[in-house]
Amino acid sequence: MTVPFPTRKQEEWRYADLDALRPVWEQFAEPRTLTIGAGESFEDVWLPTADDVHVRRMQIALEPGARTRLFVLNTAPVYGRIELDVSLDEGSEFDLFGAIVGTGLSTNEIVTVVKHIGVGGRSRQTIRSVLNGKATGSYLGRVEVARGAQQTDAEQSVKAMLLDRGATANCKPELEIFADDVKCAHGATVGELDAMQLFYAESRGLDPVSARALLLEGFVMGLWDGIENAAQHEAIATAAKDALRRVV
Amino acid sequence: MLEITNLHATVADKPILNGVTLDVPAGEVHAIMGPNGSGKSTLAYVLAGRPGYAVSEGAATFDGHDLLAMEPYERAAAGLFLGFQYPVEIPGVSYLQFLRESLNSQRRSRGEDELSAGDFIKLAREQAKLLGMDAEMLKRPVNVGFSGGEKKRAEMVQMSILAPKFALLDETDSGLDIDALKAVGKGINRIMRAPDKGVLLITHYERLLEYVRPDRVHVLQAGRITRSGDIELARELESTGYAEAAA
């Protein structure tokens, strides 16, 4: 069975670079699936590859009391897409820490659908984007709270930094709630580097490029603070720093 | 060391400095006092090179070099330090990283070797201790969550680590309690009182000057130096106020 090629009329593909996706669609059409058993914990770090087009699609089912934390860096030179469909059963927790660093004409996006299907689930998505040139960075995040999934605690924090006038950040939170005792929060900001912070750093001796790089590191690198595996932390921190040096 | 000649500057097309002339030779500490809006902070920002502060006339040289032709980071590498009236918060960047990169950037500009991480941490701990600041605070993001007094103390720690030739201190004493004021005064003397260094201290109040003992005191009013004298001038201002002093 072949999954039909998406169209831009589908909300979750609205900002995608479908021309870039078409030649490689076959290998990504079927999402990978993962089940985290009751009470188990899972942590993973997704690094960028050298490919021009890099798509990762995954469905994750969290059984009661399961915990998952994902740390992802999306920085494809042409088109990068990270797509997650996560369902949370009773008392489970899901954290996503994601960064998009885009340059040139690239399109990078993170698309999440988080479904709270059991009581007392907790989900967090923290996304930071840094874009220069004519790059596009998008985050589409839907949170669904099923009837009966009371005491759900869901939160999204999305911030984008635009370094050039031609860069674009899209941010679309979406909530669909069918329970009445839930906490669902989301915040989104789009901004540029702060002139006073830049002057402060330059007054200490940092040249303008180093000052910008340092401020951008401050904006992004806090995402990786919670990674328990030191080698994985080092890998994603290094990859993110390299990507940031390219957009400064 | 720092020579300012007939300096005029505007901010958003509004004239703020209207012909400041001032000479701070090496080995001296000068204080600038003046009412709100007289141009004290503008003078500090112009000398440090803040974007948006435009010089319309006049000159400023530092050790004979044209200060106004240099970028802010070049001024820092040349040995100029600005202590901010309102130190800026930088979330996500630790003080240790911020100062190590700043110091090494200055050292590279001057053709000196960079300091290793180990040597830098040792230096930073020593200097924090000398200024009565908990060294653990250096692991925190730059100025984030610091009280007003802690920010000013941290400016002094930065100054001692970066070891400039000349310090422009913009109301470093504002917002400090008496103990912190004393610590800052002692810090300025320890770090900057030397035959080859100089300080321009901007302040509203005379109290810090009792600790630092400036060689000269100048009054800035409406963008111009209207009076100069020794510390007695500062004491006089403290009792009479600026309005009478100008009369």
Description:
The complex is a heterodimer of chains A (248) and B (247). Chain A is an alpha/beta fold and 248 residues long. Chain A has one domain (11-191). In chain A, 19% of the residues lie in helices and 44% in strands. Chain A contains 5 helices and 12 strands. Chain A has helices at residues 18-21, 25-28, 195-203, 208-220, 230-247, and strands spanning 32-36, 41-46, 53-62, 67-74, 79-88, 93-102, 107-116, 122-131, 136-145, 153-162, 168-177, 183-191. In chain A, helix 3 (195-203) packs across helix 4 (208-220) and helix 4 packs across helix 5. The longest helix of chain A has 18 residues, at 230-247. Chain A is globular. The mean pLDDT of chain A is 95. Chain B is α/β, with parallel strands linked by helices and 247 residues long. Chain B has one domain (2-246): 3-Layer(aba) Sandwich (Rossmann fold), CATH 3.40.50.300. Chain B contains 9 helices and 12 strands. Chain B has helices spanning 40-48, 72-78, 95-109, 117-130, 148-162, 178-192, 207-212, 231-240, 242-246, and strands spanning 2-11, 14-24, 29-33, 53-62, 65-66, 80-83, 90-94, 141-142, 166-170, 198-203, 216-221, 224-229. In chain B, the strands form 3 sheets. A 6-stranded mixed β-sheet of chain B has the order 6-9-10-3-11-12, with helices on both faces. Chain B has a 4-stranded antiparallel β-sheet with strand order 2-1-4-5. In chain B, strand 9, helix 6 (178-192) and strand 10 (198-203) form a beta-alpha-beta unit. The longest helix of chain B is centred in the middle third of the chain and has 15 residues, at 95-109. Chain B starts with a strand and ends with a helix. The chains are: A alpha/beta (248), B alpha/beta (247). The A-B interface holds A 195-197, 199-208, 210-211, 214-215, 217-222 and B 48-51, 71-73, 75-77, 81-82, 84, 87-93, 97-99, 101-103, 105-106, 109, 141, 158, 162.
